[in-house]
Amino acid sequence: MKLVNRKTRKAIEKSVRKAMKHHGPALIAGLVSGLASTIATLAKTEAPHGHGKSNLTDVVEQAKESLTGGKKSRTHGGEKKRLRRMAERAERTQPSVS
Which of 33, 58, 30 minimizes the C-alpha distance to 43? Predict the structure, then answer.
């Protein structure tokens, strides 16, 4: 279903392009300064689960893994193992009926 006709889409695209041309540098500067601030904050705080690692190290490792396609996410694999173990325990603990 078409929500906006072609002329309206073109007009919206033109105004967005014009706004980005006019305000784009300020938006990018704000984005970069926020990112730099976040990295500086993470660099000086300790990760709660990292045993001596900083949060920045953790973020860098996660980014590297996601870009290189390295390790899979820990939560999904751990969750599957946990569910499998629970199913095995349930099978063992059920009484056998003859």
Answer: 58
